Amino acid sequence: MAENIENNGCSQRDSAEHEGSSPNTIESYRTAMNKYLDFSCNELKIGLASYSFQHSSKELLEKYLERMETEGN
């Protein structure tokens, strides 16, 4: 689901705020966000089109971080 976040996950207005950001940093953030979205959708057994950040919870984020710590990137 690498296509989850397009245009660095930013609107055109937001992109201007990140103008000085390293392209590697932006790509890293995009990759991390896509991994979290993939994990969340798999855990919740929903498709990406059905997902909203209202589905997120402290418990889900903690489970994701635990998985990242034990399994790596």
Helix content: 55-70%
Poorly predicted runs: 7-13
Overall shape: it is globular
Report the span from N to C terminus.
Answer: 15 Å
Number of strands: 0
Count of discrete alpha- or pi-helical segments spanning 4 or more residues: 3
Largest sheet: none
Mean pLDDT: 81
Which percent range describes the beta-strand content? under 5%
Measured on Cα atoms, how large is the radius of gyration?
A: 13 Å
Secondary-structure element pattern, one letter each: HHH
Structural class: mainly alpha
Descriptive account of the structure:
This protein has 73 residues and is mainly α. Helices cover 58% and strands 0% of the residues. It has 3 helices and no strands. It has helices spanning 12-17, 23-44, 58-71.
From the structure above, extract its key features.
mainly alpha, globular, 73 residues
Short synopsis of the structure:
It is built from 3 helices and no strands. It has 73 residues and is mainly alpha-helical.
Detail the topology: elements first, then pairings:
Layout: H1 12-17, H2 23-44, H3 58-71
